[in-house]
Automatic annotation (TrEMBL):
Pfam families: YbjQ_1 (PF01906). This is UPF0145 protein FNH09_14195. Belongs to the UPF0145 family. Gene3D superfamilies: Hypothetical protein apc22750. Chain B. InterPro entries: UPF0145_dom_sf, UPF0145_YbjQ-like. PANTHER family: UPF0145 PROTEIN SCO3412 (PTHR34068:SF2), UPF0145 PROTEIN YBJQ (PTHR34068).
Amino acid sequence: MGIDEYGGGQQPQAAVLVVTTNDVPGHRVEQVIGEVFGLTVRSRHLGSQIGAGLKSMIGGELKGLTKTLVATRNQAMERLVEQAHARGANAVLAFRFDVTDAADAGTEVCAYGTAVVLARE
């Protein structure tokens, strides 16, 4: 499978390979475009916050919070892929997520990495 055949996140038309490594076997970096990121902040509605508070007292998975974090993470990654594609990249190297609380108003998720143009060796 060549680089042009990879889909990124939920948008295969973007054709951006996203990897956590600094290189891709069988490919060389032709151009470093630079840092790209996708950022989103999500809050939870009051009902799910109360449910999570009660659940945390008795233990177990906070399924509502897990669902929110998965959706947030996916949206951040989609935005990263869109930005990389818009800048002419076909890959993002050294991909990472950063998750923080945003002033007690929600959860901030930032997906980031280095946008590059890869070519087969």
